[in-house]
Amino acid sequence: MSNELSAKGERVLLQQARERFVAAFGSAPTAAACAPGRVNLIGEHIDYCEGFVLPVALPFVTVVVGALNNTGECNVISILGSGEELKASFLAPTASSPLKPGTPAWANYVKGVVANFPGGVSGFDAVIVTDVPIGSGLSSSASIEVAIFTLLEGLTGKTVGLVEKAKLCQKAEHEFPGMPCGIMDQYIVTMGKKDHALLIDCRSLESQHIPMELGDLAVLVTNTNVKHQLTGSEYPTRRAQCQEAADRLGLPSLRGATIADLEKLKQQNCSEDVLKRAKHVIEEIYRTEEVGRVMKEKNFQRVGELFYQSHDSLSQLMEVSCPELDQVVDILRGAPGVYGARMTGGGFGGCVVALVEKNEVENLKKRVLSSYKGTPTFFVSQPSEGAKLLKL
Ligand code: ADP
Ligand code: MG
Hints:
Helix content is 39%, strand content 23%. It has eleven helices and 13 strands. α2 packs across α3 (140-156) and α2 crosses α4. The radius of gyration is 21 Å and the shape is globular. The two termini are 32 Å apart. The relative contact order is 0.18. Bound molecules: adenosine-5'-diphosphate (ADP) and magnesium ion. Adenosine-5'-diphosphate (ADP) binds at residues 62, 78, 86, 105-106, 109, 128, 130, 134-141, 144, 345. Residues 296-372 form the GHMP kinase C-terminal domain.
């Protein structure tokens, strides 16, 4: 297996989806859409605390083609990067029989969007093709949700504003797969812009495109290719611990909290875990705002320092890293040409994002390959566009 992950491009995926659609459903699709994956540069585990996040959209995309079928049934085929095919059929929701989550589990990501699409949808057929790595912290889940939503816009002619679209897709993920995610993934997947990161204020839901004029630098992403299946409750637990800290401080979220508030929490005898989570969130919010500022000033040295601080905090205070992520960050730490590195995404596996000198990329890959115990894959992340309809 090559350790180089390269995007196939939306035209290639579109062609594959269209051919499979014709073979499966006997006619041509009438609409097509795509939505990217994303990598978060900094601001981890703070979107659900109404903090700031700084993601970029990736060149990896989920493409979906479809047509209304007037049968009241939704028939969906998903072709994964490995070539494996998944299939699901369910009845389109009606006033008397709304959709409910069920099996197969993956179809909940589609059903949730169908259930939340404004004005409802009658039956449709669709084929999904993706090259977004699935379950690697690059947000294949928001990618499939926003791609389906955009397809439904194309099929029905009904559209909503971009922030509203992101919120409806987030609601879909909450209600159907049952994942209480923050707004970051759906937001950047909806609103990404080429050559820009997006500083999102998860409280006001306003955002600012930050130009990424990296010059001789590049964003190198290393996928550890591990995903630890813990109990599945880690994410909701972290969320609940952060909310407990906010409740104890009489705040709606930790966004309004300051370092001084940590002392108040200590005095209330709250658990060591809650205190650590709160410290991470408060400091990570400061770090993310600062990266937004210094990125514009092209102070990449400082961006890198903040990356390392973020990683150490996620590992020691939020406790969402794992030995593989820590190992990759440690291999990169101090290596020639590396400004900073950190885990990215929800944690317990997935990817490390690093700011590095372009001409050191190959050496750094070799370094990771020779020391890292697993089988990593790499890509250099080019900030790309958000979701859109595609011409057939
Ligand atoms: P991430 O979003 O980081 O990739 P998640 O655990 O949030 O990881 O989402 C991964 C899940 O989303 C998969 O297990 C699968 O159920 C679903 N999923 C994502 N993309 C697809 C796809 N193209 N086809 C089918 N299911 C998908
Ligand atoms: Mg996800």
